[in-house]
Amino acid sequence: MLDITSEQRRALRARAHGLNPVVSIAQNGLSESVMREIARSLDSHELIKIRVYNDLREEREAYLKAICDQLDAAPVQHIGKLLVVWRPATEETAPTKARPAARRARAEPRRSKRSFQN
């Protein structure tokens, strides 16, 4: 489990405020496929929200601890049924920025509606 300072936690909570949950944990609990999806989301976003459809706070806390232990992430916040988790990107997991596609040169200029009337 990654340790973060209270200042880092406060800044991460502020960044996570506007995020929507990207992973949901439902009736099957913390399955292997859910863990893979959380790892994939952390690789691409670093900071994610996870919604847990469970009424027991102890189980949600156990999910948060298991996620952070297995994926080497830091628990940022557990509020209600939302878990906020952060893992910094490494060089090998950092998403690459896609270059914008080059624009093609047009062979002839566009014609306006008026030019079709003649």
UniProtKB/TrEMBL annotation:
Keywords recorded for this protein, A-Z: RNA-binding
Keyword RNA-binding listed: yes
Protein name: Putative RNA-binding protein, YhbY family
Residues covered by the CRM domain: 2-98
Region (Disordered): 91-118
Keyword field contains Protein biosynthesis: no
GO MF annotation terms: RNA binding
Top-level taxon: Bacteria
